[in-house]
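Attaching the record inline, Q. Sequence:
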Amino acid sequence: MEAAGVLYILAAVMLLIGIVIVFFDRRKRARCTEETTATIVSVGEDITRDGSGHTERSYTAYYEFTARGATVRRQGGTSTTRKRKYKRGETRQVRYNPGNPNEFIVVGDSGNTGGGVALIVLAVVIAGVVLAAQLGVFGNTKL
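Structure, as predicted:
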């Protein structure tokens, strides 16, 4: 298979994954309709090292809130950029699924939609560059 075909397949797969991510994130947001206040009860820290010795830290917030008279304690978002994004004792507004309070979103967080949109845009860019190369826009370089 030629390079252009492989790149078109890659772009199509990325586009499909991006659409699925956005679709499921939107459905989750539609199910989570009840709003309440949650408290960050702990922040977990995970340290990973790659083969070259580079260290990366990620921080995971654990939320606690009351939904329909029951206490729910669940893992929320994970941040790899800033430790201060989550502080123990802080409160955040959450929306939960009244039929399944373990499913919730933090109000104001983008969820997975941002990643899905990024995949869609990247897929379109890859397909556009491959098409432009096939049409000879970049001179004699063709895929």
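Residues 3-31 form the longest helix (29 residues). The chain has a mean pLDDT of 87.

More tomorrow.
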